[in-house]
């Protein structure tokens, strides 16, 4: 897979305050990357530097292996709070964006219509933006970001302000833009990232504290467990004393570390039957992205 963009030792200081602190990462062509971090962790500042809206204090951004060239024509950006003119129609707004990107007038209307179609707004192209819902505005923001068919699409919290249906719609649109576009988007809604992301970048206090595919990050940090719930704490205690596997108890539940290949639901079931325990439930616990993030951040 070839590299589209590489960031090396990027930092941003606001006077003495370090908003982004020496971060490095790579975006491969045709992939999507989620920039995940708590409020104030440096997501917007990072995206703004890549969108060339902010000058980095230190570091280099390489585009297809070459440093510091003007990458604006190849980049589309959807800010966290896009500004719209309520008196304009959707078509007029996307046309204006196209002109600001320097697109030629010839064939422009066709291109605008195709873009509105791609974001699911073809029916309302002639309607004024003032009457649009939050979800429609977000799609329109997306349309202005992709009208010039950028190679890299930067999105700052593209779904955070939307309801679950709106979130799903926008995530589906983004999925359809892959692999023609490479996508870097910030989010704190981790379910979405879990669904549509090749690479994760965890930011905390301006630093990249973990990066890699969901699979790799899970392998490094997930703690697989089998959770057995008993009818009473006494039974849970008795079972925990009996087994030789690493475990911990929380009230009526015993959490058994299942990272070893010898521990699985069948082996635990056998132990339970052999010793005549009756249980409420037995479950394999997988680690969610949210738990992974909390764990990685807590470890720093
Ligand atoms: N222009 C500025 N001047 C001073 N400090 C700033 C400026 N812009 C951002 N910061 C600070 O830098 C830190 C990182 O901000 P940034 O907006 O990048 O975080 P974020 O991860 O995008 O947060 P959120 O999820 O709340 O949008 C914050 O502490 C913020 O207050």
From TrEMBL:
Q: Which domain of life is it from?
A: Bacteria
Q: ABC transporter domain location, by residue? A: 5-230
Q: Which InterPro entries did the record assign? A: AAA+_ATPase (IPR003593), ABC_transporter-like_ATP-bd (IPR003439), ABC_transporter-like_CS (IPR017871), DrrA1/2-like_C (IPR025302), P-loop_NTPase (IPR027417)
* GO function term, MF aspect, one: ATP hydrolysis activity
SMART domains from the entry? AAA (SM00382)
Cited Pfam families = ABC_tran, DrrA1-3_C
Identify the CDD domains for this entry: ABC_DR_subfamily_A
Q: Which UniProt keywords apply?
A: ATP-binding, Nucleotide-binding, Transport
Question: So what family is this one in?
Answer: Belongs to the ABC transporter superfamily.
Protein name (Swiss-Prot/TrEMBL): ABC transporter ATP-binding protein
């Amino acid at each position: 897979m070839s590299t589209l963009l590489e960031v090396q030792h990027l930092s941003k200081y606001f006077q003495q305050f370090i908003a982004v602190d020496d971060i490095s990462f790579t975006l491969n062509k045709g992939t999507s990357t989620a920039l995940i971090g708590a409020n104030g962790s440096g997501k917007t500042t990072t995206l703004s530097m890549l969108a060339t809206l902010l000058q980095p204090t230190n570091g280099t951004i390489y585009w297809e292996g070459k440093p510091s060239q003007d990458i604006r024509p190849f980049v589309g950006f959807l800010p966290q709070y896009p500004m719209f003119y309520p008196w304009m129609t959707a078509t007029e707004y996307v046309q204006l964006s196209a002109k600001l990107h320097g697109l030629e007038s010839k064939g422009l209307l066709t291109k605008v219509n195709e873009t509105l179609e791609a974001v699911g707004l073809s029916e309302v192209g002639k309607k004024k933006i003032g009457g649009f819902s939050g979800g429609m505005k977000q799609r329109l923001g997306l349309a202005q970001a992709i009208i010039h068919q950028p190679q890299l699409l930067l999105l700052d919290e593209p779904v955070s302000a939307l309801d679950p249906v709106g979130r799903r719609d926008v995530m589906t649109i983004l999925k359809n833009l892959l692999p023609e576009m490479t996508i870097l988007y910030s989010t704190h809604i981790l379910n979405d990232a879990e669904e549509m992301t090749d690479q994760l970048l965890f930011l905390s206090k301006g630093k990249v504290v973990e990066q890699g595919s969901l699979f790799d990050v899970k392998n490094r940090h997930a703690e697989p467990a089998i959770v057995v719930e008993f009818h009473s704490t006494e039974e849970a205690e008795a079972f925990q004393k009996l087994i030789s596997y690493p475990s911990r108890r929380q009230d009526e539940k015993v959490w058994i570390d299942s990272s070893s290949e010898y521990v699985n639901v069948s082996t635990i079931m056998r132990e339970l039957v052999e010793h005549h325990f009756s249980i409420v439930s037995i479950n394999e616990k997988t680690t969610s992205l949210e738990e992974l993030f909390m764990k990685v951040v807590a470890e720093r």
